[in-house]
Amino acid sequence: MLSVSVISVKFTGNKELFMLLQRLTNDKGVLTVPIASLVIERDSMNGLFIESLDTTGLFQPRNLQTFYVQAFILFVVNLYDPDYLETFSHPKSELVFLKSSTAKKILAPKKLLKYWQNVFHMMYSNVMVHSNYHRTSILFDNIDQFHFFDDDPKSKTEKVPIDDFLMILLQRKDFVEGGIVVAVKDNCLTARNAENYFVPNEKKIKKLSKCFKIGYTIENDVYDFLSKIRTGDYSSHIIASESIEKSVDLKCIQFQDIPLIIEEELEKICEEPVIVLQPRKKK
Predict the structure, then answer these.
(1) 3-state DSSP call for residue 114?
(2) Parallel, antiparallel, or unpaired for β 47-55 and 84-89?
(3) Are 124 and 85 a contacting pair, CB within 8 Å?
């Protein structure tokens, strides 16, 4: 079994931060180690925008981190059961946990896009991906069917016909290597895109997501809390534990035991070739 907890940080407004913590024991005693951070934004139409995801690379066992972080994401999203879910896939080295462990890996653009596509398909059958690496059918008939959030990169793009809108997005500097991933519930679908999509180890990850619980809620402005977290050092388990203790009252956190995935029982992931699509310039 593994010992983990999820803390929630919220105050006013529509933003919330969730952090996955793992309790480890070594010769120095019991350590509380930050594993992942997820910042979300919600709107008044039951939409949810995943603003950022960052990890420390300190999860133990290290080779199973992806499965537990994906289960953590599912847990957070399912707290709200949104009709509309969106994120932007764009590789960045350190968003929250600065001075991270050298074990931390930054996914290449096409692998990160596949990562988010898998996560979304574990919750929704109608998923749209639009990038210079991969594209699926567009979910909507017009641009107004997208949700626009406060810190949503789409909000910085002029509202034009939907094909032109998506083309403009892919020409932006921050989108050349990125992409948009959107999912909607069946009852919200106005176009088409339900498809059979295989996600390796989906049943195990979804089952795991049901084991998480909120172990502590902090009333604090999200950006204020982030500024404190970013001053820490997350290069090792001991140092990371000392850093998080400066921002969180660890004595208040409730941990729970969750199952340890058996690696030999995991489905193997086959890499598929990805065709890179070059964005065409608007005439």
Answers:
(1) helix
(2) parallel
(3) yes
* Phi, psi dihedral angles at 150 (to 5 degrees): -55, -50
Per the structure, the complete domain to which residue 221 belongs is given by 2-265
**Closest-CA residue to 247 (of 24, 55, 34):** 34
Amino acid type, 110: K
Q: Answer yes or no: is 184 within a domain.
A: yes
Q: How many domains are there within the chain?
A: 1
Residue 108 domain-assigned? Answer: yes
Evaluate whether residue 31 is within a structural domain.
Answer: yes
pLDDT (tens place) for every residue of the chain, 283 residues total: 999 999 999 987 889 999 999 999 988 789 999 999 999 999 999 999 999 999 999 999 999 999 999 999 999 999 999 999 999 998 887 789 988 877 788 888 899 999 999 999 999 989 999 998 888 888 888 888 999 998 777 877 777 889 888 888 888 877 788 899 999 987 555 445 555 688 889 999 999 999 999 999 999 999 899 999 999 999 999 999 999 999 999 999 999 999 999 877 787 655 554 444 445 555 5
**Contacts of range 161-165, beta carbons closer than 8 Å, 24 or more positions apart:** 162/138, 163/138, 164/282
Instruction: Determine, yes or no, domain membership for 281.
Output: no
